[in-house]
Amino acid sequence: MRASSIDDNIFKRRMPFFETDQVKFHYEEYGSGPNIMLAFHGFGMRGTQFRHLEPSLGARYKIYSFDLFFHGHTSLKNNALDVIRKGMTPTEFAAQLKPFIDQVSKSAKISLLSYSIGSCLALALLQELPEMVEEVFFIAPDGIKPNKLLRIGASFKPANNFLWKLVNSPKVVNFSLRLLNKLNYIDDSLCSILDREFGTTESRMVSYNTITFNSKMVFDKEKLAQLINANNIKCYLYFGRKDVLFPPSIGKEFSALLENSVLHIEDDGHDLVNPRLNNVIANHLAVY
């Protein structure tokens, strides 16, 4: 693996890319605190999503907020369909980012922040590099208990082939979203987000690529809990009471396995990265 040089002079110039043999990662920088935090946004967003949480986190952390695969300016060097369908395992992803972590952390432990599907990447680092993690912030996280529909779409070949056909079928996509919303499988806020993200052929391709490429990001929550407890990692969990995609029952079940966790259930849906959560996190950091 070839990691690009990211010495202090480069950071002063705010160079926003980190390059490996397989990926060109783009990231945003927020905060000026002494602790290092890596952040991974939700579907359809960019690394800029976490600027909303800078008021609560910025004094304590230096935040490197990455664009996910197929989002923003992060890109695979080989984005052929067979590569996307092969996906990337947690071990492979951790190997891609470890040189970056080594450089910015200078051997100190890091924190992780993630929202929705971005939590799969945070969980990958947590699982593969638990000794390097001090605390984690999971917001409406995917991965702890995967959404069944997304998992089938990613891993079951006939369903994945159907998703591929939807890239060029906007009317079918629109009908499917209306049906899922009517059946309460997705809430209104998520339906609104998906309406925007599935609006063009290009955005539907991003959806297919993201879901498919994440097919190898599979985790065992009991084993994750054991790693968290064994490494004394502080875990903050935030869920929306009205979230039907990743409901608060996931947080309740997972926090029951943890020795050092904070669970907060906000009276909201899936769209949680907002000023209200900013205030909640600020209060938690002041108390815990």
TrEMBL record:
Signal peptide residue numbers: none
Family matches, as InterPro entries: AB_hydrolase_1, AB_hydrolase_fold
Positions of the AB hydrolase-1 domain: 36-271
Superkingdom of origin: Bacteria
Protein name: AB hydrolase-1 domain-containing protein
